[in-house]
Amino acid sequence: MFDTNRHGFGAKEWSEHSVNIQIGCANACIYCYAAHNANRFNLRPRSEWAMEEFTKRSAMTSYPARDGVVMFPSSHDITPFNVNEYIRVARLILSRGNRLLIVSKPRLDCIREVISKLAEWKSQIMLRFTIGSMNSDTCAFWEPGAPSPQERISCLQEAYSEGFRTSVSIEPMLGGINAAISVVDAAAPFVTDTIWIGKMNKARLRVPAEYAYAVDSIVMLQGDERIMALHRRYSDCPVIRWKDSIKEVVARHGN
Ligand code: SF4
To answer: Which Gene3D superfamilies does this one have (predicted)?
Structure first.
């Protein structure tokens, strides 16, 4: 199964293995952990993160059969720049019988290509689309290079109607609990499996200082009391899964 109980944080909550084929990501999310790490380890300055560049892994010609779920991508997205290489590598992964978790802030043209070219492996694939808010201005602020939330819902609808397994990630939440509820309401009719909800992790560390005012607002909107109210609202909802950032709040305050 894709969504089993894993003991990990971040991507490890969703998968046993990760694959990426490029450095940089056109979405340029200002909370991006990968951009933060690339800058920290002198791999790429933060200001150049939106520039997409293939790594050696993009030239791989085989991929082994692995136990567990393979998440691809985990530190970039599927974009017009890489979609053909993405599909080529995804086929290598799938042709060995692996289960593939595709995580994306999806672009309609790219997702159409992906679901049409990978259709024969449908039973081994789950598509998980990240939507932190249904407010397009909010998404454009935090994720300036990514598609609108409306386009992401269209991708979800299309994948669902083509018979793929679908899931949504509301992580990071880009607003308060009402914003998260709006995403659940918009996405739920097209979700076959799960909707994951999580706070913005380590925002004060990862978001550049010039946006500290926006982080203050997020921290206020995602205070423990509000998160507990969100948790209570969906406590009996089998589709909802909580990321570690919310489990920590619940563990502190109890049910
Ligand atoms: S989509 Fe992911 S990898 Fe790309 S900029 Fe946003 S957070 Fe970073």
So the answer is: 3.80.30.30
- What is the Cβ-side half-sphere exposure of residue 65, based on CA atoms within 13 angstroms? 3
Backbone dihedral angles phi then psi of residue 103, each to the nearest 5 degrees: -110, 130
Tell me the pLDDT band of 12, cut-offs 50, 70 and 90: confident
Residue with tokens 């990071």: 172
In this predicted structure, the answer to whether residue 201 has a pLDDT above a threshold of 80 is: yes
* pLDDT over 90 percentage in the chain: 94
Number of domains in the chain: 1
Residue 179 lies in a domain: yes
CATH number of 112's domain: 3.80.30.10
**CA–CA gap between residue 216 and residue 107 (Å, rounded):** 30
Counting ligand 1 atoms within 8 A of each CB, the residue from 29, 49, 202 with the most, and so the one to mutate, is: 29
Residue 79 domain-assigned (yes or no): yes
Q: Is the CB of 22 under 6 A from ligand 1?
A: no
Is 4 within the bounds of a domain?
A: no
Cβ of 29 below 6 Å from ligand 1: yes
Residues 53-80: pLDDT tens digits? 999 999 999 999 999 999 999 999 999 9
Paired with 241 in beta bridges are 196
State residue 203 phi and psi, 5-degree precision: -60, -40
What is the distance in A from the centroid of ligand 1 to the CA of 24?
8
pLDDT tens digits, one per residue of 153-167: 999 999 999 999 999
Query: Ligand 1, atom 8: nearest CA belongs to which residue?
Result: 32
The verdict on residue 3 lying in a domain is no
Residues facing 101 on adjacent strands: 71, 126
